[in-house]
Amino acid sequence: MAVLVIISLLSILGLVTLPLPSGFSEGGKYAGEGDVPCPSTATTPLDASSVTVQVLNATSRAGLAGDASSMLDKAGFQTKEVGNASSEYAGAVEIDAGPLAVDAAYTVARYFPESRVTLTGSTDTTVTVILGGFYDGALSDEEIEKVSQDVSVLSGPATCLPLNPETSGSESDEESGESGQSGAQSGAQSGQ
Predict the structure, then answer these.
(1) Distance (Å, rounded) from C-alpha 32 to C-alpha 36?
(2) Kind of pairing, strands 83-84 and 52-57?
(3) What region, left, alpha or beta, does residue 86 occupy, with left being phi > 0 and alpha being psi -120 to 50 degrees?
(4) CB 36 within 8 A of CB 119
(5) Sign (positive/negative) of CA torsion 20, 24, 28, 33?
(6) Residues 146-158: pLDDT tens digits?
(7) What is the pTM assigned to this prediction?
(8) What is the CA radius of gyration of the chain?
């Protein structure tokens, strides 16, 4: 017991550092490229008309990107021409966004159950939706309406990491109308 008291005192005085889990460290870990970022604290979904989205098909199944893009049009998003991803994606849906577009990406993700938001280094103003082999298809009109009316606070998974406010370019939540782009490249237009 005395040993614990001595180690505690030495730690408090800063003479000994204890190996604690990263959650206890002061600096914390921030999201980097390829990580799942957290949305801004207490942010509700953005106005869909302020978000530009490009949908890419990362499968050999034709028509997926067109159907998903039409769904997003119905929800009020600004959509770019659909395309094919440069490589296949084995998951359901990946939504790529740069640091300024994380909240926009989570706004879009509400229309894609089982989606994963991924941070890119892009500074473009487009959120990119990559449809993979496990994508189940577009929501029905009723489901689109239900999601559009839901103004619950955006939330990420428990494993998401916050953005570094010093490097994200977004020091406040007031930039919620801006969005970013993914690192995915569109390929030939067939099979979308």
Answers:
(1) 8
(2) parallel
(3) alpha
(4) yes
(5) positive
(6) 999 999 999 999 9
(7) 0.75
(8) 20
